[in-house]
Write a structure and sequence with these properties.
Length: about 625
């Protein structure tokens, strides 16, 4: 181990086709990790390793590579750009020290770019904007900078200008400190005092402080294809982003942000170590936040630990603070788990949950069990697809149609299963209208097949609170296995109904068993009956997902845009009119988003821009 080594985990994020995978490839080439530049079109990049990624030319799974340059180790996490795979991005955000947000100089700020920037800003992650493709015909500089400041953040400040814009000879030229940078750094007290007093302010030191706070976002230019500006990008990342010392000091604290299966089907966990170290064959505790908010403690022992040092292939550990590593042997681990003593667990999702659902059936009915097992394994890698089984139907949640095709291909190529998918539908949910209570009794004189008594009370919970399970009886009133059977059944039944029930509190009010006849299966059966009766008493109401939106259009097109929004059950706010156009905000049912996106170009002569994100569930 090199104690003086500084580490930095860096996310490469972008809208699809902005060039982030090409940028990652160029970064590896410029730092000597690879001697040959791969390309997305040729399917030979280091980070698009899945056959499906190479075939489609898009990133589906986040990939990790590392470069060690001087006293810095930069661990790069290349994330998907397509909105259907936003969950992969979400899992990466929790382990980043900083992010490079890639924007195409030719295509400008896209809807997905805005989603990413909002989330990075909300999380306080330092962001450097890399304007790629300056060599492309149609590349912009001044107009693009204006768009960055109006659509992403007013604190985007250019560190470069470009010569030869839109030609193969395009080249970024560093800008000397000036009024624009001084204005962006005005919130820094030390810098402002020097500036006002007429002393020479330290622009660089102030910029480092403001970038670390996520208060200023440097903008640099370049081309991943020609390599222009990429070496300067590496230097600026090392200079401006907060690095940490790689050390074994302290107690183990690490986060699991990705899980995959090896060739033999073994589970492999990707972790980011925040303190301490992790070595093979050393037992350690790890913790998990359950759906009801409680924290479960488990024990693990890694059989192998491999650390990313220089390239896409990790080497044997140990993994120390600042490292990203792959860990074998943790069969019970899940995404979001915290390794080490009880500490900070993954927060609830940053992005919207999937709003689509599709039913999946095997082409061969004899493959039904294998299909469900395969989908369950895929849900380990992407928990948000949330496999559900109701009676004889199996369904999965989706962000979009591309994700559906990826799941279909993965089932065929990795599991040898041919599957059929129904047309995607909006995922509807149910909420309770009032409290309800029911008791399932095993009466001695009745022919009831469950040797157990279960009483359950259901009550509405706050929006976005999930499902909370509570005990209204003494823990010692039942063996722990029976308590576990009741709790698991409650969560399973609420999730696997035709429409999942969300945001409620379920309390166990009564429980009894009949030794030696009662088994856990009796409690599962009686719990299902009591819960169904309690839900009938409470009455449920169907809710649909609703998005908040922002639409930009020329002023002369706003009346047509508003008519279409109202037609699609949107609730628009009062439009904001400027000299150059009009902005409309409001809410729109998720079921209408795609249709409006398709209609907007014709309504605005191709000049309209639309952005939406999940807001809430509302009564249908």
């Amino acid at each position: 181990m090199t104690p003086q080594l500084k580490t930095l985990t860096l996310g490469i994020l972008a809208h699809v086709d902005a060039g982030k995978t090409s940028l990652t490839e160029r970064l590896l080439f410029e730092t000597g990790v690879i001697g040959h530049l791969g390309s997305v079109d040729s399917g030979d990049t280091q980070t698009d390793s899945l056959e499906l990624e190479r075939r489609r030319g898009i990133t589906i799974k986040s990939a990790v590579v590392a470069v060690t340059t001087g006293e810095h180790r930069l661990t790069l996490v290349d994330t998907p750009g397509h909105s259907d795979f936003i969950a992969e991005v979400e899992r990466a955000l929790g382990v980043l020290d900083g992010a490079v947000l890639v924007v195409s100089a030719a295509d400008g700020v896209q809807a997905q770019t805005r989603v990413l920037m909002r989330t990075l800003t909300r999380l306080g992650i330092p962001v450097l904007v890399f304007v790629n493709k300056i060599d492309r015909v149609g590349a912009q500089e001044t107009t693009l900078l204006d768009a960055l400041r109006t659509r992403l953040s007013p604190r985007c400040v250019a560190l470069d200008t470009v010569t030869g814009l839109g030609t193969p000879q395009a080249k970024p030229v560093p800008l000397p400190p000036g009024d624009e940078l001084a204005e962006a750094l005005a919130d820094d007290d030390e810098f402002l005092a020097s500036y006002v007093e007429g002393r020479e302010p330290d622009y660089h030191a102030a910029l480092v402080r403001q970038v670390a706070r996520g208060a200023v976002h440097p903008v640099v230019f370049g081309s991943a294809i020609t390599g222009s500006g990429v070496a300067a990008l590496v230097s600026r990342v090392r200079e401006l982003f907060p690095a940490r010392e790689r050390t074994e000091a302290g107690e183990l604290a690490a986060t699991v942000f990705k899980i995959e299966r090896g060739r033999a089907g073994e589970k492999i966990a990707y972790i980011r170590v925040r303190s301490g170290s992790l070595s093979p064959r050393t037992p350690f505790p790890f913790h998990r936040r359950e759906p009801d908010g409680t924290v479960t403690e488990l024990t693990g022992r890694a059989s192998a630990v491999r650390v990313y040092e220089h390239g896409a292939t990790p080497v044997d550990g140990p993994a120390c603070a600042g490292d990203v590593a792959r860990v074998w042997g943790l069969k019970d681990v899940r995404i979001g788990d915290h390794l080490g003593r009880a500490g900070t667990l993954a927060e609830p999702g940053f992005f919207a949950p999937p709003s689509l659902e599709t039913v999946v059936r095997p082409v061969d009915p004899d493959d039904a069990v294998a299909l469900y097992s395969a989908l369950e394994r895929l849900s380990e890698q992407d928990p948000l697809i949330s496999v559900r089984r109701h009676e004889h139907e199996v369904s999965v949640r989706l962000y979009g149609e591309v994700q559906k095709e990826v799941i279909r291909s993965t089932l065929a190529e990795d599991f040898g299963l041919a599957a059929e998918f129904e047309e995607s539908r909006i995922l509807l949910v149910e909420r309770l209208c009032r409290a309800g209570h029911a008791v399932g009794h095993r009466a001695p004189d009745e022919r009831v097949y469950f040797w157990a008594n279960v009483g359950l009370r259901v009550e509405p919970g706050p929006p976005a609170s999930g499902v909370a399970y509570r005990l209204g009886v003494h823990l010692g009133s039942l063996p722990l296995a029976f308590h576990k059977a009741i709790e698991e059944t409650v969560h399973e039944q609420l999730r696997h109904r035709p429409r999942p029930v969300i945001d409620c509190v379920v309390t166990l009010t009564e429980a009894a068993f009949f030794p030696p006849l009662t088994t856990a299966g009796d409690f599962r059966g009686m719990t299902a009956l009591a819960l169904a009766e309690a839900l009938r008493a409470a009455v449920t109401r169907v809710h649909e997902p609703v998005h908040s939106f922002e639409a930009e259009a020329p002023a002369n097109a706003v009346s047509g845009v508003l008519r279409k929004l109202v037609e699609l059950r949107a609730v628009p706010d009062e439009p904001t009119v400027t000299a150059t156009g009009c902005t409309v905000t409001g809410t729109i049912p998720a079921a209408s988003v795609h249709e409006f996106e398709q209609a907007l170009p014709a309504l605005t002569q191709g000049e309209g821009v639309f952005f939406s994100e999940f807001a809430e569930y509302r009564p249908r």
